[in-house]
Amino acid sequence: MKFVDEFRDSTVIRELVEKLQNFSFATPVNIMEVCGTHTVSIHRFGLHRVLPENVKHVSGPGCPVCVTPNEYLDMAIALARMEGFVITTFGDMMRVPGSRSSLEKENASGADIRVVYSPMDALKMAENEKDRTFVFLAVGFETTAPGIAATVKEAKKLGLKNFYILPGNKTMPQALKALIDDPEVKIDGFLLPGHVSTIVGSNEYRFIPEDYGIPCAVSGFEPADILMGFISILKQIVEGRPSVENTYLRSVRPEGNIVAKAIMKEVFVPCDSEWRGIGVIPDSGLDLAPDYMDFDIRRKVEIEIEEPVEYPGCRCGEVLKGLVLPPECPLFGKVCTPENPVGACMVSSEGSCSAYYKYG
Amino acid sequence: MCLGVPMKIVEVKGDSALCEFSGSKREVSLKLLPEAKVGDYVIVHAGFAIQKLDEKDAIETLKMLQEAGII
Amino acid sequence: MDKILLSHGGGGKKTQALLKEVFLQSFGAGELSKLDDGAIFDSYVISTDSYVVNPLFFPGGDIGKLAASGSINDVVSMGAEPLYMSAGFIIEEGFPVSDLKRIVKSLADTIKSIGVELITGDTKVVEKGKCDGVYINTTGIGRIVKELSAERIRPGNLVVINGNIAEHGLSILLARNEYGISSEIKSDCMELWTLIRPALELDIRFMRDATRGGLAAVLNEVVSSDWGIELYQDKIPISEEVKGMCEMLGLDPLTVANEGKMVIFVSEDDVEKLIEILRKHPGGKNAEVIGRVVDDVKGRVVEKTVVGTRRIVDMPVGEGLPRIC
At the fourth CATH level, which superfamily is domain A65-169+256-300? Predict the structure, then answer.
């Protein structure tokens, strides 16, 4: 596999592991990644086990499904129960528990819920089945938002009257600020998400070293990429020169993808958004812009839900801030397991708890 | 939400392309990367090409980052 | 659990939970509680399986070939020579007879190729919409030729597989065309008697065919609390095409279904001979030693990664939906 195999090559990896283990720190160093795909990769390749002593890998709120509060799931379920509605979603959302049910359970009870690989697939379905109302669950960060924006734009161009989204996309920069500003959270370096950065550009994060003095490295997802990211951060710490270094050279540019950013800006506007575990963060979510508001399902139907509830004892919130390692949650592995998940962190394929449970 | 795969464009039809990765082919939207052409390698996420790949392999990347003092 | 979910049929943890909560509750603690692929009585083995694959025809096979190979392979994995089979068909009203003939011929060709005789069967027709084309149940009967038991597995034994993994599950996903992907991947669906028969004289401790839930499921089912299994990430045979499609869909190839793969636990002394024998057969040309039985990990399956670290290979959950993020 081109562009993948070379970054899993054992000779390259060995050289990088050696470099990494040459670092030595007397006090704890916390490196936080904020991308579910990084979480999975790190655990799948056991990269957290080759970090030098005192250096800890911490998972932050990088899994968009995990940070989506129960209320969103409850609304999706309410929509699924409506006559003539088809819910289209990325696969991750299917098993996530809402307050009282899940999309998987609703599907078992007869709701029409379909997993799609791309929002464009949902659009095609809507075109082919004009008698049904299609709602796409718009979840994801800046990697996914432009594609959803482009899909909504296409829906408008086609004059489709049966395609909607339930807005739920979130953006990273404000969440990163909220984490850094949180006195409980101690972060000494950020491993920045490679594909979010492909869209927004590495320049987007300059405020982190400039305003807060925290080193950052943008990194890809193969083991060699992640090792290079860790090395870059540790080097910045040792040399006392925090900045944003790009180690994902093949994909990330300082300015990102300008076309994608423009489409996002045209279709979406920033709004306040609730992040599980952190609370409401201003300007961290994406709502539809005035020209596209007709595609927001909340404007078309009244969605009635009961008061959302969280499972008592679930520490997803703290796990998402990196304050607590999954095994430290009292429910981990006992009440909360991948086959009987209580919180999103365990059921999402990119959740921190799921990664710990599945890969160790 | 970052699962992206490096695919090669084998055919372009309007604003979409037929892309290939290790034997699997899929139609991919070029709405976010209108300048992409046949032969380009692109990162594909959720059915969209999001960036053209710079053909630097691991050894080259390692060398460049080392020279720049980044790693 | 109050409602059956699709994930209960996935072959992983949810299936296990269903078996324990519903079936073992009623049928008790005898032979059934071993939850083996088949059961032993006198010197015979009996194994039953139902086939509900959708679509009925897929690259590399069809439900008929699958129904025959599946039950044959379960019998073979218990160390028995397959001799007889029964088949029950449930057919949907309106199903084309030409398709039924195709399916029946596939089943017949497969069993005839190894001298297994279909000695009894049953046919039912249900109203349109009440079943998906055709469902088949087959029961295979064989005579034990080799004593195999998971209890004979010891640390130091090696784990061998006869070839490339994850082909069947992906061929089904391709045939369903739910993700718009096209590929040359074909199901590995095949009977394993002709492959395994010449190897039975060796010091094989235990065998199981890897089906739904993939390699991860079958290994986790076997592992005991006294020992563990360490797999080598770079030794597991897998084609570039399968690797690629799994990467695209975010699937772990270890959890994707197979239908022509036998996992064999063999003593260190006979492993080279085993590989040699397997590689002589077309279904075993990519046979490899993929791991070993270890005693520093108990009750778990782990994989040695390319980074040199170990990661847990857990029993898969659910249906393996493709993830996007």
Answer: HypD, alpha/beta domain 2 (3.40.50.11740)
